[in-house]
Every structure is written in C-alpha cells, then in structure tokens.
Amino acid sequence: MDDRELSIHVVGVAYPNTDGSNRLFAVRTCRPGDPIELRPEPKHPLDAHAIAVVNRRGEQMGYVPADRAPWIGAKMRAGPVTAIFQAETRGGAAIRVRIGEGAPTLPPVREREIDRDDWDAVDPEGPAWGA
C-alpha cells in the first residue's frame, strides 16, 4: 500500500457551483485542519476523472487538478484517502491529502523573513520600529 501525504492546490474556486453557491465563500469558511471530502464525479460532462473538493458543510470548493485526478481516483479505489483543509491561497485553496491509513497532518508553516526593503515597499514611512 502506498503511504504518503501531499499538498494539492484546489482548482476552479473562481467559478460558481451549479446550485449558485460561491466556491470562494466555501473556501473562506474553512480553517486549517478542517476535514475535506473528495467526491469522484465519474459522470462529469468534461472529465470522467473529476474529483470535487467539498468542505465540512457540504459546499463544493472546487476540484482536484485534472492532471492529479486520475492518480488520486485510483488511490481512492485502492484504499483509504483522507483530506484536510491546509490553507487559503492567492488563487484558491490548498488541501493536504493522506494516502493510506491515518489522518493527514498539516506541514509546518514557514515564516517569511521580512527585511527592511520589504517594509519600505509596503510602508514608505519606514518600519514601525524606527530607522
């Protein structure tokens, strides 16, 4: 059995759901670690491998990318695959997927180092801690 974790970007967040609900709103109701459901859509009109990404409230947030969906779908048919919300991203969302037994874990958050030049670009008055 394959046993690994990976982060996957959710695609299609900018599009409305067929019921008119807002996918971006569905993303913004999630917190890191919230359970995510992966729902295969074999009758999807554009892609028989499509896998919808659904939050804990049952709202669709988007899809697993088309280049990953056939592989993830095969893993889902072979054994347990679980997912959690990882983070909202500039283009939508990231989820953490666990293939195999156990629950997915969030990767450590990397703090972005901010140097003086970054602050000058954000605040022309300079950093709050003085020059």
UniProtKB/TrEMBL annotation:
Location of region: Disordered: 104-131
GO molecular function, one term: nucleic acid binding
Species name: Alterirhizorhabdus solaris
Official protein name in the record: HIRAN domain-containing protein
Ranges for domain HIRAN: 6-82
Keywords: Hydrolase, Metal-binding
Record Pfam families: HIRAN
Domain of life: Bacteria
Keyword Hydrolase assigned: yes
Entry coiled-coil feature ranges: none
